[in-house]
Specification:
ATP binding, alpha/beta, 2 domains, Rossmann fold, Lipooligosaccharide transport system ATP-binding protein, 308 residues, Alpha-Beta Plaits
């Protein structure tokens, strides 16, 4: 049996009376793309800081690449690539210099760092911006440069904390493509996100985190099968009417969730569910049939929306 690249048991982090991470267990295999899905404040970033060996745990065990994070921080960090929520780039330096200067922090040979930096310019699709100052780059370019910088030491594990927050849809898809390429090269990816489409796109397996605890674990498709239906009917009846109408919709589908702006009806066949709504004499001002997503899984498990 090959040991997991990252392994946690009863992992806990407290800040005074606040329990940020509450006794969680998980294993991450080599070459896997593993996600922590949850809202802001769920404990995702705190967990990532402990994996990165930049924050010590309060109790439990946590090993990365076979080493204890509390006692082997420098050795672990030397083999990790880290992409924080903020880019933390040197805005006044040129693109190429951001890579070279960062590479020297790892005490790597200058010749290797320069060669590696040139390779990463191509990987990040920033060749034409090689000598541009960072403060003139778009948000997507800055994010790609941050990922390239995290790869300068050729890490075995890449930690990405909310990698596409603030990016437009096109920039997000370009970034996803770069991450897919890393995975194809055998790099282990650990991703935190509160975007369900990102988790579905990037993660082989994930855990759903809420209030510092893991409430579900599996592949995106297996979680959707376990906790939701094939389709979801969204119906809107206007401001202030959704919750009032919801009681009349009981039994239309397998399950119903009444939110402030819409009612969600979970069913195997969303169009059939919509016809049943119309047969009841109800006339929604808007309706939409879609496939179930991880957003629905989170709503089922926690009783609240992923993004509030």
């Amino acid at each position: 049996m090959v040991a997991p690249v990252i392994s946690a048991r009863s992992l806990t982090k407290r800040y005074g009376d606040l329990v940020a991470v509450d006794g969680i267990d998980f294993d991450i295999e080599a070459g896997e793309s593993f996600g922590f899905l949850g809202p802001n404040g769920a404990g995702k970033s705190t967990t990532m800081r402990m994996i990165a060996a930049t924050s010590t745990r309060t109790s439990g065990t946590l090993t990365v690449l076979g080493m204890d994070t509390n006692s082997h921080g420098p050795e672990i960090r030397a083999q990790l690539g880290i992409v924080p929520q903020g880019d933390l780039l040197d805005e006044e330096l040129r693109v190429i210099d951001n890579l070279v200067v960062y590479g020297r922090y790892f005490a790597l040979p200058r010749a290797y760092v320069k060669e590696r930096a040139e390779q990463l310019l191509d990987f990040a699709q920033l060749r034409e911006k090689r000598t541009a100052r960072v403060d003139g780059l778009s948000g997507g370019m800055k994010r790609r440069l941050t990922i390239a910088r995290g790869l300068i030491n050729n890490p075995k594990v890449m930690l990405l904390d909310e990698p596409t927050t603030g990016l437009d849809p096109q920039a997000r898809h370009i970034l996803w493509d770069r991450l897919f390429r890393l995975k194809e090269q055998g790099t282990t990816l650990v991703v935190t996100t509160h975007f369900m489409d990102e988790a579905e796109q990037l993660c082989d397996r994930l855990v759903v985190v809420d209030n510092g605890r893991i409430v579900a674990e599996g592949s995106p498709s297996s979680l959707i099968r376990a906790y939701s239906t094939r389709e979801v009917l969204e119906v809107r009846f206007g401001a202030g009417r959704n919750e009032a109408v919801a009681s009349s919709l009981q039994g239309v589908g397998e399950r119903l969730e009444a939110l402030a702006d819409r009612v969600l009806i979970y069913a195997a066949d969303g169009e059939q569910a919509l016809q049943r709504v119309l047969d009841l004499g109800l006339d929604p001002v808007a309706s939409l049939v879609r496939r179930s997503s991880l957003e629905d899984v989170f709503l089922r498990l926690t009783g609240r929306s992923l993004i509030e």
